[in-house]
Amino acid sequence: MIRSELVQKIAQDNPSLPLRDVERIVSTFFDTITERLRNGGRVELRGFGAFSTRGRDARTGRNPRTGEAVEVDAKRVPYFKPGKEMRARLNV
Fold first, then answer.
1. DSSP class of residue 17?
2. pTM, rounded to two decimals
3. Which of 22, 23, 48, 44 is nearest to 33 (CA)?
4. Could you tell me the end-to-end alpha-carbon distance of the chain, in angstroms, rounded to an integer?
5. 11 with 17: CB under 8 angstroms?
6. Which of 42, 63, 81, 91 is the most exposed place for a label (fewest CB within 10 A)?
7. For 12-52, how does the pLDDT look when each residue is reduced to its tens digit (9 = 90+)?
């Protein structure tokens, strides 16, 4: 499912909400999660899962075209851990 499909699904399930408001709600939701993760925080949605970040150390990588060694900087990457309820729903 992509973002626009999510917006359409929410709009269909809530016909009293204008599409513009649904788009703003979805954008605010994603922006809030992103901002929290950017600041080193964690976002937990009970029954769904938890978003956090994990650190990756600097390393020497390879350019796949040339095979040349390339330095890759240290960075943080998003990480999602599904909640117990979600795992149970997936394995029914």
1. S
2. 0.78
3. 44
4. 21
5. yes
6. 91
7. 999 999 999 999 999 999 999 999 999 999 999 999 999 99
